């Protein structure tokens, strides 16, 4: 038994956190109780009780027409206060915009949170056909989508081994996310410097990602591009990869100075 399981109330806190993370991933449209319960791995009655309690405290809101749950105003206020310490999106936004403008694709900035990446910023280029696999607030496990693969690839070997041992990504994302397949993509990412997602989440939707490093040299964020398969030809991928790496390097240096 670990320390968390022996701490009074820790299970409730863990369940509340799971519900809020699931709700965050469903923004901006919100989600119904059944789907939030499934995403948080809770029973529907438990999820409903937690959501109702969070609503009374202002952490969650509910749309009276659709019945869907939404993040509440109290979280916005807390996030505003915390932003001074943690938010680097304003610095990254310039690079996201430049990538979208230069490539015509959708560009993103994501942050690592434990074993996941969370999208913080999206900007679309001028190419009319877009992929909507990734959007602000969307979470993916490390190793899934190009941003998460880029970050996972540059963790220490011990951290990579621990993550792949604990997470069975193929159960949720199919055989292409089995450990051997991910390790092969990690090796390729380390060779080129950027990660490629060849339509593994949604067929025809491709992505490239490059890690952005903290001052201590850890891959803490990622810049990425997504678009339709025809826009990610073998001839164009190296060009997009070089552009991503240039911006990732510049952003790493800016964040180190911050």
UniProtKB/TrEMBL annotation:
GO terms for biological process: negative regulation of DNA-templated transcription. InterPro entries: GAF-like_dom_sf, HTH_MetabolicPath_Reg, Tscrpt_reg_IclR_C, Tscrpt_reg_IclR_N, WH-like_DNA-bd_sf, WH_DNA-bd_sf. The keyword NADP does not apply. Coiled coil: none annotated. It comes from the Bacteria. The keyword Nucleotide-binding does not apply. Residues 10-73 form the HTH iclR-type domain. GO terms for molecular function: DNA binding; DNA-binding transcription factor activity. Residues 74-257 form the IclR-ED domain. Keywords: DNA-binding, Transcription, Transcription regulation. Pfam families: HTH_IclR (PF09339), IclR_C (PF01614). This is IclR family transcriptional regulator. It comes from Leucobacter komagatae.
């Amino acid at each position: 038994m670990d320390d968390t399981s022996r701490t009074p109330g820790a299970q409730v806190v863990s369940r509340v956190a799971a519900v809020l993370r699931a709700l965050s991933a469903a923004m901006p449209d919100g989600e119904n109780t059944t789907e939030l319960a499934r995403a948080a791995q809770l029973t529907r009655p438990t999820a409903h009780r937690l959501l109702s309690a969070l609503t009374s405290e202002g952490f969650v809101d509910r749309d009276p027409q659709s019945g869907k749950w939404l993040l509440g105003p109290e979280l916005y206020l807390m996030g505003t206060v915390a932003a001074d310490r943690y938010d680097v999106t304003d610095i990254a936004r310039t690079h996201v915009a430049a990538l979208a403008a230069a490539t015509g694709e959708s560009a993103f900035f994501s942050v690592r949170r434990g074993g996941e990446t969370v999208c913080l910023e999206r900007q679309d280029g001028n190419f009319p056909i877009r992929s909507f696999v990734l959007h602000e607030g969307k979470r993916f496990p490390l190793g899934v989508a190009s941003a998460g693969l880029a970050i996972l690839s540059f963790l220490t070997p011990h951290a990579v081994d621990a993550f792949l041992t604990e997470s069975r990504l193929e159960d949720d994302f199919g055989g292409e996310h089995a450990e051997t397949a991910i390790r092969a993509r990690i090796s390729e990412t380390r060779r080129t410097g950027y990660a490629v997602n060849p339509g593994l989440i949604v067929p025809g939707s491709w992505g490239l990602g490059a890690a952005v490093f903290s001052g201590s040299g850890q891959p803490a964020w990622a810049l990425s591009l997504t678009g339709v398969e025809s826009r990610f030809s073998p001839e164009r991928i190296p060009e997009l990869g070089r552009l991503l790496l240039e911006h990732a390097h510049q952003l790493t240096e800016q964040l180190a100075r911050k």
